[in-house]
């Protein structure tokens, strides 16, 4: 069970995901969580480095789609700003990830999921057989229920790190981004 909660990669922010390495490992599509992954919770203000990251991903030929269980209006607004299609669904349930894969037209093995939550983004992506990337939340603001889940998430993260299954990669001053040890 613990391995299903372990991301393949753990980085401080989405902008520190090394796109060349993703492409090199055969990734052709990315499923993106929205809130606290690339915008602060409830915000539609997308930071310039994030826009540049998406532009680079598109330029490298990666297909992108968003997957969120947030309100339709908010998801569609951000989808419109970015020009990236969006699927809505309850993560970590399989239909949500299947809907995202259908939008991308990619197989699970060639698809990465990027998100800030272990029990939704990482668990759902792992169950679907995708490459999973965990980022540190962009802000501390979030649903009350999410704040409660974070306590359990911190315990899982601590456990994964103590067991040597996971390490935060790509921090300034380190040798760069590596792979989380997994499974
Ligand atoms: Mg999120």
What does the average pLDDT come to?
A: 90
Count the domains: 1
Instruction: List the bound ligands.
Output: magnesium ion
Measured distance between first and last alpha carbons: 10 Å
- In percent, how helical is the residue content? 25-40%
- CATH fold assignment: Rossmann fold
The CATH superfamily label reads: HAD superfamily/HAD-like
Total number of β-strand segments?
6
Order of helices and strands: EHEHEHEHEHEH
Structure overview:
The N and C termini lie close together (10 Å). The protein has one domain: Rossmann fold (3-Layer(aba) Sandwich), CATH 3.40.50.1000. The protein has six helices and six strands. It is an alpha/beta fold. Bound molecules: magnesium ion. Magnesium ion (MG) binds at residues 33, 35-37, 115-117.
Task: Indicate the topology.
Blueprint: E1 9-11, H1 19-24, E2 29-32, H2 48-59, E3 63-68, H3 72-82, E4 86-88, H4 94-104, E5 111-115, H5 118-127, E6 131-135, H6 144-162
Parallel strand pairs: 1-6, 2-3, 2-5, 3-4, 5-6
The structure holds magnesium ion.
Residues 33, 35-37, 115-117 line the site of magnesium ion.
List keywords for this structure.
Rossmann fold; binds magnesium ion; six-stranded parallel β-sheet; globular; 14% strand; 183 residues; disordered C terminus; 6 helices; single chain; 6 strands; alpha/beta
Structure summary:
This protein has 6 helices and 6 strands; from the N terminus they run E-H-E-H-E-H-E-H-E-H-E-H.
